[in-house]
Each structure stands twice: as structure tokens, then as C-alpha cells.
Design brief:
Helix-turn-helix domain containing protein; Tetracycline Repressor, domain 2; HTH-type_TetR-like_transc_reg; mainly alpha; Tet_transcr_reg_TetR-rel_C_sf; HTH_TetR; transcription regulation
């Protein structure tokens, strides 16, 4: 019985977080009641899982960052050459960022747990960029901290390109990954 209750609680938390992402993306000031309604749950159930709006925002931040880590690890970046790994990781991360646009693009709660996860994401990214440098994809004197910042900016810009919402093909994570990696490695210059 305890296991069934735990599974039910996990499902309701997942439903609340997914509904919160959808509702808050449409209206950042949406109430807990609106989120509960979108999740198909009562307001009491939402408040049982999250004491207040801040607790919900904190849970959103942790959940989205954990999903980014899972996406990075799912790409198995150590199992392929750096270029292949960069494409895989980028496509997977873009899938998560696309599904969690509100949470990942808004300043939200920076709890210790969220900060620790962000540190883990940075470590994964720097490890992959270090391999890319070692394998000759990046210049030997490339500043990896700066490259990481540029990479993150490209990820954000790829999802927010003008006109992308009207053209679903422009949101294809694999095509966007090629755009991000090609821009990161070659800039906008000629590819001769």
C-alpha cells in the first residue's frame, strides 16, 4: 500500500510541475488554483505537495535542472568523439529546454539543490569542452569559461529565433543542435 501511495504522490507531483510549467508560461502570475485545475487536481492536493508558490517554483527549478543533467548523461558524451557528443548533448538539452522554457528562462528560486545541479551542469559542459579542445575542435588557447557562456547563449537563442514559433520545423532539436554547434565551432564566417 505504501508503494502505491508513493507512486500516486509522484504522479501528482509530476502532473503539478508539468501543469505549472504550461500555465506559468502563459501567465507568470497564475494562481495555485489555476495550476491545480490545469493538473486536474484540487487546490488542496497542490498545497499538500507544495506549501506555497515559492515552494512550487523551487521544485520547478530543481526538476528542470535535473532533467537537463539526465539529458546530458543520456547522450553518453564519454562514449563518442567530442564532436558527436557535442551534437548529442546539444540536441538532448534543446529538447528539455523547449519543454521547460518558462522555468529555464526565468530567474527562479536558487535553492542549494538547484545551485548544486547547476554546478553539475557546468562541470559536464566544461568536461565536454575540454575534450573538444583536446581533440582539436576548439583552438588550443580557447578560454573554456567564455566558450561555455557562448554555448549557453547559443542554446537560448536557438529556441528563441524570430519566426520559429510559426515554423515548427525550425524547432527541430537536431537541426538546432547543428546550428548551435556549427556556430560555436565556426562562427558566422565562411566554411572554406
Amino acid at each position: 500500500m505504501g508503494r502505491a501511495l508513493r507512486a500516486d504522490a509522484e504522479r501528482s507531483v509530476r502532473a503539478i510541475l508539468e501543469a505549472a510549467e504550461r500555465v506559468l508560461a502563459q501567465d507568470a502570475g497564475a494562481s495555485m488554483e489555476q495550476i491545480a485545475e490545469a493538473a486536474g487536481l484540487t487546490r488542496i492536493t497542490v498545497h499538500r505537495r507544495f506549501a506555497n508558490r515559492q515552494a512550487l517554483l523551487e521544485a520547478l527549478a530543481v526538476s528542470a535542472k535535473q532533467q537537463l543533467i539526465d539529458a546530458i548523461e543520456e547522450a553518453r558524451p564519454d562514449a563518442a568523439p567530442a564532436l558527436v557528443a557535442l551534437y548529442r548533448v546539444t540536441a538532448n538539452v534543446l529538447r528539455v529546454k523547449s519543454a521547460w522554457r518558462f522555468t529555464l528562462s526565468h530567474a527562479n528560486a536558487h535553492t542549494e539543490a538547484a545551485a548544486a545541479l547547476w554546478g553539475e551542469i557546468d562541470a559536464h559542459t566544461l568536461k565536454l569542452l575540454t575534450r573538444a579542445k583536446r581533440e582539436g575542435l576548439l583552438a588550443p588557447d580557447a578560454d573554456l569559461e567564455w566558450t561555455r557562456q557562448v554555448y549557453y547563449a547559443l542554446l537560448g537563442e536557438a529556441l528563441n529565433r524570430p519566426g520559429a514559433e510559426e515554423d515548427p520545423a525550425a524547432q527541430d532539436p537536431d537541426a538546432l543542435a547543428r546550428l548551435v554547434i556549427d556556430t560555436l565551432l565556426h562562427g558566422a564566417g565562411s566554411h572554406d
